[in-house]
Amino acid sequence: MIFTVNEESRSLSIGDVCFIRKGERFTYKNAGSDKAKLVLVHTPNFKLECEVFEE
What we know:
single chain, mainly beta
């Protein structure tokens, strides 16, 4: 997975963790051809109406 946080990109592998602070903008994408599994944990709770989705 490639995570970009505040315009800085990092490659994450199996078992890696990425912490994103409140207010930071981030994107992620699967850079490989294999399926990837991802766990997102939101604290405080996730509120869909507060999220901004871009393509």
